[in-house]
Amino acid sequence: MYQRQELLNLIDLFPPQSLIDFYSSLFENLDLSELEDYLPSKFGPKSFSRHALLRSFIVMKCEKLAMITDLNDFLHNNLKIAHICGFDILKPLPSYTVLQRFIKDFPNDILKEIFKKQVSGLKDLGAISSEFISLDSTPIKASTKQNNPKSFTKNKFKKSN
What we know:
This is Transposase. InterPro entries: Transposase_InsH_N. This protein is an all-alpha fold. It has eight helices and no strands. Helix 2 (17-28) packs parallel to helix 5 (79-85) and helix 3 crosses helix 4 (68-77).
């Protein structure tokens, strides 16, 4: 009993209140009405909430976790954050395979709609404005196959290229 009490006194085992408040307010204002929470299934048990899975990937990006295994470890080590995402912490949390399958099969058009709704809502609240334009500076790689003299393509000297 005494060892359990010492374990609960270690403040490092629990996420800071500011982190809990951040994720609580973030998910409270996140509109996921475009995403069906549970997919109907004729076979097998009820799956994990798709809302909770998407929230967990938002946590992954906010915490700058590089891999799904890091996210899985983070959720298992921070049960309060997992609960805020929407998981039932009294049951097993999703495995690596569940997280990987979810993100692989997640439809991009739904994500675009969720993002569009969030941006529109922020614009209506006056948090952001459309007065400024931003540019993407992602580098574009040149097609070196066509303009490389050492390339073995047959039509590299055609004027149309």
